[in-house]
Amino acid sequence: MVTNRIAIIPARGGSKRLPGKNVMDFYGKPMIAWTIEAALRTDLFDVVLVSTDCEQIADISKFYGAQVPFLRKEYADDFSTVSEATLSALIQMELHSAKRYETVTQLMANCPMRSAESIKSQVLQFERMTEASLLSGFKYGMFNPWWAHYRDSESKARRLHHEGNNKTRSQDLPELICPSGATWITSANLLKKYRSFYTPNYDFFELTWIEAVDIDDHDDLNLAKAAFLLHNESV
């Protein structure tokens, strides 16, 4: 069994589409608290680290049990990828703790519906794989990209994909997966080598759409609130 697992929760303070999203209230707790508590409940990680450039996020994260021994030094702008921020946090933590980690699990703070149980199942599935990454995703439902259209320069409707046509039944087309930022896992060595979780031979761990909700704007927030009520019908 793999040891030296680290969970890294990237949470910068400069969200533009939904300001303050990582600490805004979500059913009685700051948004990031749901992810911190889910990670801690797995009892799988040597450390649950929040990588942030924001003192407020750091203080809230510590209150809910995460470690924040330093603030993010780089990759806190609007252009850096989340993978770069996570890699930077990993390297910073290894220097800080004088310890090397084998497995890196990136948990996005804006995915509050992802459960401890799904994190644990995904980690255990990843550890049965060889030299690969395991990303969370969910099946497309009514918003099926096989039927996507765009308008060309003359405003005429054009089909984006040509694998299907107007007579093809949806059940006869290949199943499509939508990536979710909820839980991404890879080895520290692969992350350092490729600077991304999209390493060769990556695969997907399937979540329900409720657990996969990824909040970036107000519409996503409303969807997440609806998902919470569906999941907790007694509320």
> If you compute it from the alpha carbons, what radius of gyration comes out, rounded to the nearest whole angstrom?
19 Å
- The H-level CATH homologous superfamily of the largest domain, spelled out, is Spore Coat Polysaccharide Biosynthesis Protein SpsA, Chain A
Averaging pLDDT over every residue, what do you get? 91
Q: List the uncertain runs.
A: none
Coarse structural class: alpha/beta
What order do the strands of the largest sheet run in, or round the barrel if closed? 4-1-5-9-6-10
What is the class of the largest domain in the CATH system? Alpha Beta
Quaternary structure classification: single chain
Query: What would you call the shape?
Result: globular
CATH topology of the largest domain, anyone?
Answer: Spore Coat Polysaccharide Biosynthesis Protein SpsA, Chain A
Number of helices, where a helix is a run of at least 4 consecutive DSSP H or I residues? 7
Question: What proportion of the residues is helical, as a percent range?
Answer: 25-40%
Strand content: 15-25%
**N/C terminus separation:** 39 Å
Largest sheet: 6 strands, mixed
Helix-strand layout with pairing:
Layout: E1 5-10, E2 25-26, E3 29-30, H1 31-41, E4 47-51, H2 55-63, H3 82-97, E5 103-107, H4 116-126, E6 134-139, E7 149-151, E8 157-159, E9 177-187, H5 188-194, E10 203-206, H6 209-212, H7 218-231
